[in-house]
Amino acid sequence: MKRRTFLLGAAAIGTGGLVLGYRAWSDRFEAQAAQLTAGDGGKLIAGWVRIGSDDSVTVYVPHIDMGQGTATALAMMLAEELDADWSKVRPERAPGEKAFANRFLAEGWILQGLKVPRFLDGAVDVGFAEAARFVNLQITGGSTAVRFTGQVGMRIVGAAARSMLVEAAAKRWGVSAAELATADSVVTHAKSGRAARYGELAAAAAELSVPSSPPLKARETYRIIGTSPARFDIPAKVKGAPLYAIDLRLPEMRYAAVMSAPVHGGALQSLDPAPAQAVKGVEQVVKFPHGIGVIARNWWQAQKGLAALKPVFSDGGNGNVSSASLAATQESALGAADGKSMVKLGDAEAALQQPGARIVEATYHVPFLHHAAMEPINATAQVKDGRLTVWGGEQDALGAKMKLVQLSGFAADKVTLHPLPVGGSFGRRVTVTTRHLEQVVELAKAASPNPVQMIWSREEDFAQGTYRPQVASRIRAALGPDGKPTAWSQSFVETPGINEAIGLPYPIPNQSIRAVPVPVHVTQGSWRSVAHTQHGFYTETFIDELAQAAGRDPFEYRRDLLPAGSRQRRVLEIAAEKAGWGKPLPEGRGLGIALVESFGTVVAQVIEASQGRNGVPVVQRVVAAVDCGDVCHPDTATQQVEGAIVMGLGAAIAERITIENGAVRQRNFPDYPISTMASTPPVIEVHFVPSDGAWGGLGEPGMPPVAPALANALFAATGRRARSLPLKLAAAA
Amino acid sequence: MITLTVNGQPRQIEAEADTPLLWVLRDELGLTGTRFGCGVAACGACTVHVDGVPMRACSLPVEALAGASVTTIEGLPASAGLAPEALHPVQQAWIDLQVPQCGYCQSGMIMAAAALLQANPKPSDPEIDAAITNLCRCGTYPRVRTAIRRLGGAA
Questions:
Q1: Which residues of A touch B98 (CB under 8 A)?
Q2: What are the boundaries of each domain within chain A?
Q3: B2-73 sits in which CATH class?
Q4: pLDDT by residue (tens digit) across A385-395?
Q5: Is the ipTM of this complex over 0.90?
Q6: Would the CATH topology of A8-221 be identical to that of A247-315+377-455?
Q7: Binding-face residues of B in 93-122 toward A, CB within 8 A
Q8: Which residue of B has its CA nearest to A70?
């Protein structure tokens, strides 16, 4: 990533400390930021770090933590460059206000020349990338926290603060800054034996000008990055402390249960509220255009009241759509339409027509998937004294706040959003749909001046998801005399927004990849790793089929296609080596391999599996090799990849949302089997392969290779090729 | 009115008799460490101990619990004879192995693990599989297993 000069701002705070951050892009936001964080009456400028006279280092983190250890990792990156004493460092969540906009997220993409990723669609206008280079963003998603906020933001702020503290010491002692050293929040002068704590220097440092491009440390000198200090968030989590939005308890709070039209796009046609009103504790029945809500003294009463109602909903004309009808529509669309050209290299169609070319063709299907985060969708809101206050776990705090302003009709300065940690998200809590915000605003108006906590039942959470799309792809390839592909012609069903997952890791000379639109009324969203889940499955299963057609070993076939010296080839080789590729296996087992790059990280996985009884695949072992550049916190990094593998196995084996009569059929976990303790393989190995590549993300990239590696392992074990997910059904078919 | 003991304290419950224990704990008693996940006893996020036995509070009508003793995550250390602010050995193991990710299911996971270890101090892997049926969408199962093994004396 090329280095840029950033405008930094610094300020003194009342108690003699230093605050440093990127200067917010307008004075108004700076003033607002100061107001929001000046707990001790001090001043603050768009601060990312605050050094107190007591040596405390507070790092303001503009992302919510959904369990990825983001706050700890970002604080580490800043503390590393600051040479801070880690025991004095604490992260704090930046308020959901524009003053804390994370413009580095936006710049991360712009610097890399990437398009706006899919998960931002609901949050920003289409013209975002071009028009709003420094748009206010405070989004968690796209595996961006460490690679953009951390790399571009936290490290430079930490380095600038350190350099100012050194300069303050140099002035105080009348020596050259070059003679000074820093470690553990102390500046020392070896020649004279003098030392000063950061807290003693902070006030003087705040008076100095801020270096615009402070030198960053070389990797060999890291003391904090690359270690695994205990995460800040864990003690509260093991004590069951009130953390999540659903745990909020306010005086006089009411509770609400809601239901929306089961067929997405449907509307409420009629409702007799009387049966709910007869339930003890029920206070109000609220109608929405698309559904209903019941407010009661506790949530159980609200849910009982809701269950007593017999609302009539329209189906928006989609009452005849099913998963099977959608799959059939997609099949014919893939066969008929040319689609929008997404990749064109050489002349794939001509190469496919070459006499003697060996043609391989396959069609793949993947189902809708639900996020099924353990904390059901919920939000708490209060309308009182002309103000709207909302507490919720939103991946896009600023986008959600903008939406609340629109929905409520209150002015922006009368709306406050308190972002709270989320009990899992996996892409669900981005603002693809703001149905829950619409509901909670209406409920709060109805319950005013009392606050109201709205919780979706798990059944509602399943029915009103933002699912990974059900889609399909058809691929044709031509193999040359050496068995290598000479042409790759692919059409795939387009998904909403921008698809970052198109493109092959293998340099095949003739390529034509086309997107075919097939509209569907079901709400679709970003599911952990977004389009990479399906494209990884298409590409890496098909390449395995090509190896099979060429009579080659699937690992060697891939390796020989990948450029020598590439990150991809190295990662593939290490995964194969660590997994003991080629060694004999027990009867009935097979090894499968897959390689997918996503969010700047290259991951290869080898899975050992067998076909169990009842058609349920059994996984014995997963070995992953991961190149994400540097690793900030190895323990958390490992855990993110482990978690993605566990979640990915559940999805590959058994998860499937189906549509019947236009509506989602699955109601709750018993209909939608996710990974369990018993289904989790005894061995999951994660091997990091350090490289000088740009820092990649880690929350998502462990996911995409799982399904193809498992499908390929089952092929190796059984000789039967699965071309649709989940594999449990494919095996039974 | 129903009386039960919650974390060692006798409590008079105002909620209707059919109210699941989960909502009594969360909405009436303010004990929010016991979490709502599914409402059908499938996920285990609401696991508590009823007279020492792990049970899923979302599907237990409070009327069935008259006179029972309920322990929630907030009362787990005290139930083991520790100071209320101390950490139960299972909670300490969860910190040592940095088990949680999002953390939402972990109260239930810890309650299930504590009950398993109380009944069976050295559980085998199949016994862990059979007892820990709680769901975790973040996929913390490998670390949960390692923590339970370690508490059971495995290296």
A1: 228, 230-231, 234, 635-636, 639
A2: 8-221, 247-315+377-455, 337-369+467-732
A3: alpha beta
A4: 999 999 998 77
A5: yes
A6: yes
A7: 94-95, 98-107, 110
A8: B101
